[in-house]
Amino acid sequence: MDVGASTGADSSNTEPKFEVNDADPGAFILLRNQPQDPNGITVGDEFEIGIHLGNPGGEPATGEVSVELTPPNEDESVQTASTNIDGDAEIPPGEARFFTLGRFDATVAGDWELTAASGIEQVSDSYDKTIEVKERSDD
Question: Cα dist. 114→18, 55, 88, 97, 100 in Å?
Fold first, then answer.
């Protein structure tokens, strides 16, 4: 999937802290994720996930980034989403921005894991990779 959008908003004030090295080129660090369904995700839903990326380098960070959503069992497929970060969406040194990725398919209940894939060089120590998918109720 190549679906992604940026709010363009600087969210560095609300993100986990990360070390910036001015001598390094621009890079991406995955800070946190935020499913975009306020009522939670249930089996059968299509959903997007917001990710917060920071730039620990000394130059603007640009390029294609991907995440992988891994289901809680081996019978289901890993789902991947990516976006290209450039132009107005580039992340200045030491700052963080919010991007929306997906459409993912909730095919099974359980704790899925959203992990960094291509283009994301680091993951914050405080990053929680769990995405909970609940069973659909019969009401």
Answer: 20, 19, 26, 18, 13
Measured CA to CA, the distance from residue 71 to residue 133 in angstroms comes to 9
Instruction: Report the percentage of the chain scoring pLDDT > 70.
Output: 88
Tens of pLDDT, residues 5-23: 444 444 444 568 899 999 9
Structure tokens at 83: 């976006």
11-15: long-range contacts, CB 8 A cutoff, minimum separation 24: 11/52, 11/96, 11/97, 11/98, 12/54, 12/94, 12/95, 12/96, 15/52, 15/54, 15/96
Q: Which of 15-24, 79-88, 128-137 has the least mean pLDDT?
A: 15-24
> Residue 136 has which token pair?
């659909």
Q: Which residues contact 17 (CB under 8 A, 6 or more apart)?
A: none
Report the 10 Å Cβ neighbour count for 23.
7
CA distance 3 to 23: 32
Q: Are 119 and 18 in contact (CB under 8 A)?
A: no
